[in-house]
Write a structure and sequence with these properties.
Blueprint: E1 2-5, H1 10-21, E2 27-30, H2 43-48, E3 56-59, E4 62-65, H3 67-77, H4 88-105, H5 111-119, H6 124-149, H7 165-179, H8 188-198, H9 201-204
Parallel strand pairs: 1-2
Antiparallel strand pairs: 1-3, 3-4
Helix pairs in contact: 1-3, 1-7, 4-6, 4-7, 7-8
Length: 216
């Protein structure tokens, strides 16, 4: 397996965590999203993903884009350990939780959106406030949902004592939130999960600072 990745891409970060949880061997092919006008726009990568986005997982003569689709593929390729809770209600909740991040929070502070704002003459302060607004709005809903499932302090991860797709999606989004000085004290349950996950090898090894393309 080859993962086209950028060290700071939240979506690529999700997939790296999932690959590590499943203990699947893979190699990284870095795609720098800023260098040389963005390597994702170069013709050779455009052939791999016409959307010009990372991540892309190449395996069995397939180029699979979209982090959630990649994780679904990994689940089919190697069912255990699963990225989903055994409990049906928690499985549905983890999918809902992941989609809230991947569809409603992350796209609004993706690099190409922020670049569009900057090209529209938005200041750095404007861009930061934009990111903070949408992350805070999303995290407020996530905190409400997850805290209701942890009324008895059940489980160290989002849904129980095993990492799931929800944790794969949450940790990169919190990492991104901290880059923009979002106050995580407002989200104690999310932050508790984040702190626990940071200490786990599968998450630690997937972190931006551990990637070969992380700048010295």
């Amino acid at each position: 397996m080859i993962l086209y990745s950028y060290f700071r891409s939240s979506a690529a970060y999700r997939v790296r965590i999932a690959l590590n949880i499943k203990d699947i061997n893979y190699s990284i092919k870095p795609i720098h999203l800023l260098r040389s006008g963005g390597e994702q726009h170069h013709p050779e990568f455009h052939k791999i993903n016409p959307q010009n986005l990372v991540p892309v997982l190449t395996h069995n003569n397939q180029n699979i884009s979209q982090s959630l689709a990649i994780m679904e593929y990994l689940e089919t390729y190697q069912p255990t350990p699963s990225l989903f809770p055994e409990n049906t209600n928690n499985k549905t909740a983890s999918q809902e939780f992941s989609l809230m991040i991947c569809c409603d929070i992350h796209p609004l502070n993706n690099l190409r959106v922020l670049n569009y704002l900057k090209h529209g003459k938005a200041s750095e302060i404007d861009v930061t406030q934009w990111v903070q607004h949408w992350i805070n709005e999303g995290f407020s809903a996530l905190e409400t949902k997850i805290s209701s499932t942890k009324s008895n302090d059940e489980g160290r991860y989002c849904f129980g004592d095993t990492a799931t797709i929800a944790d794969c999606c949450l940790i990169p989004q919190i990492y991104n939130a901290l880059r923009y000085d979002v106050d995580m004290s407002k989200y104690p349950t999310l932050n508790k999960v984040y702190q626990h996950c940071l200490a786990q090898p599968d998450f630690h090894q997937a972190a931006p600072e551990q990637q070969t393309d992380y700048p010295d």
